Amino acid sequence: MRKVLSLAALTILLTACGAQNENLYVQDEDQGGRRFVNNDLNDVDTNQNVDQPMETNQNPNFIDLAETQPNKGTDVNKAREVIEIYTDYEPGQVWLNGQQMWVTAYTHAEMAQDKRNEEEADLRKRLTRAFPRYKVNVQIQER
Asked: Where is the secretion signal located (predicted)?
């Protein structure tokens, strides 16, 4: 009987010491099932560490680092292009002053003041569609 009891006590003692009670620092998950951030690279995490090229124009507040970055000169050229393509007028002076764009267009035809106001409003609408960040002021003059 003594041998049986000592063998049972030894079995209980060995089985109790052999149980692995993993704590939260060893596991990959906490009690809520969320993954810890650790330095181990699993198959899931390898794609996050690949160097991927970044688009530089994602936010208008970032400076564009491309060689052909837009500036005020490209805005002036685009305004002249809008006048040449979408109207019968010749582009004149285009000035940028802060958030305002001052545009002069020339025509060879004589126009009444009402017709000129309508044409200026139409050209202003086209330029505002092309440049929503500027307050566009348009003037049509005869040559």
From this structure: 1-21
